[in-house]
Design brief:
The protein has 14 helices and 13 strands. By secondary structure, the chain is an alpha/beta fold. The strands form 3 sheets. The chain has a 6-stranded mixed beta sheet, sandwiched between helices. A 5-stranded parallel beta sheet has the order 2-1-11-12-13, sandwiched between helices. It has a two-stranded antiparallel ribbon with strand order 7-8. The chain is elongated. The relative contact order is 0.16.
Amino acid sequence: MDVLIAVDKFKGTLSGKDLAETLAAGIRRIDRSLNPVICPIADGGDGTVDAALAAGYTEVTCQVTGPLPSIEGLAQVEARYAFDEATLTAVIEIAEAAGIWRLRQHQLDTWNATSYGAGELVRHALEIGAKTLVIGVGGSATTDGGAGLMQALGASLRDADGQELTPGGGALASLDVLDFSGLGARLDEVQIFVACDVTNPLTGSNGAASVYGPQKGASEEQVNLLDQNLQKLAISVEQELNVSRGTYADARGAGAAGGLGFACLSVLGATMRPGTEVCFELTGFTQKLPAADIVITGEGKLDTQTLQGKGPAGVAREAKEQGKTVLAVCGLNELEEDAWRQAGFDDVYSVVGAGASLEESLADPRRFVEQLGEAIARDYLTGR
């Protein structure tokens, strides 16, 4: 029986690689002859760089501007991305520079948060010779429409007095002059793909500020003002690029990462692709799947978000199309059986509810995940 373990992370406890290796260890405890193929996966959000590293990419680190330059400890941060020398491909997570994970609850301030560091990551990758960029846009703390990213790459956004705009979406109210003449020519020499499953446009009731602003610390008043500011930015950018209004602002995914999707589509000329699809190619999942009889996938919590295009749901969809048995593992399962079966899972193994409380599972995840591996081996791989 050929087994493929293609799992996302247990957020906060186990990376995708650690989770896969722990499951494999449990399986081998039951039958040493079993040797599952490991292939960590992601969906374009946090964990995408880890998945690329597990697939053989090299880690690159650099100092970049953090999400809130005015706060000590968040002005400069060490960020990382993955690079493949053979294909000159860089895999970048926006959240490495401008991630909400870097902030405590009381620090949430999307009015002033900037994507400048994300632009510095892109610039660094270009400087070491990347010819293909894969940009994961999940988990940002920003709502600046990618203005910071544009500035980091050489664009100038100035107010009526000729002063460069300060960081954050709030400052876009003062935008008067937009100048792209300083953008590096190297942007024309690379292919850029945005790994994204968000479909929101830049502005409006379903836009970046309205939908995601509140969870990033924006007040109701700020949400409305940020939306107006993003509209102002969009008009300026589309005029500068000589395209009709809404060409990029209304595109699917333009509202991703506080509007950074808009900047990637318009200024970087990126192509938007489903996050799971891009990550499956990066990690080799697409190539490894045909040889498997049983596919084990999963993440920390199975819930309704899982069903909305996240990694495990993508694995189940692809695997079912090829007639595979699909098993899901998780720390906590919030789905009814009808829902997870409809998503393509043949069985679900959850740490919580199978002899462990939530607190116990968080304190010692490897122990309980290994037990899940043992249970899967008994139920599906050995007939015992």
